[in-house]
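Reply to dn_fold:

You asked what the input looked like. This is it:
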Amino acid sequence: MLEEVSGIHYLSDNKMACVQDEDGIIFIYNLDTDLVEKTINFSKSGDYEGVAIIDSTAYVLESNGKIHQVLDYLGPSFTTHTFKTHFSGKNNMESLSADSINNRLLLSVKDTDPNSRDYKGIYAFDLETKRVLPTPIFKIPLNDPILMEKSSKSDDDGGGTNGGFYPSDLAIHPIDGTIYILEGKTPRLLLMDPQGKLLQLHELNEEFFPQPEGLAFAPDGTLYISNEGKKGTANILEVELKDE
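and this is what came back:
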């Protein structure tokens, strides 16, 4: 049933909310039993890439920038509202994370940023106004030494003459506030401090991470990464990073 797992959000009791490309469905997956316990059909088919949960409300991101709000998503009579943003398929939006402390969602551009080719922006969706701020709150500078030093693939699609970086998901560490940004094109994990400074870049082993698409934390800081079923079935892995 789950072939891609393009977005994940840790719930509780080792359960994960998941979305996958093409299906307007939120899947509730049990990590202990490896079973899908519930499906929430919230919309028609589309290119769904990210999911974030705040209390009883789910938010799902489409690659064209639309954000679907599913109120009382686990209830029998959930309701869905869709919010358009200034993004489009050209930007290819894949990353979504809840930032409950600041009453917002964070989303990042995978391909061409609408404001510059020199960075990939992380934008805020205000949960009160239901609008995305026009300029990024954080930037991933494509000429940052951390990216230039460790870029294993150099191409200028969306990055001028710099090494590229293509966010496929992001999540905020629940304890120290560090922002983790995942790349699926070249399996890597970028760490950014709460003020937006790039800290570290971890290369991920392609054998275990053939195409990492989803990222989530449990409340205790346990990190999970999901993979598209590129060379078999999709999976969700518990990950422990080594100091570099």
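The radius of gyration is 17 Å.
Hope that clears it up.
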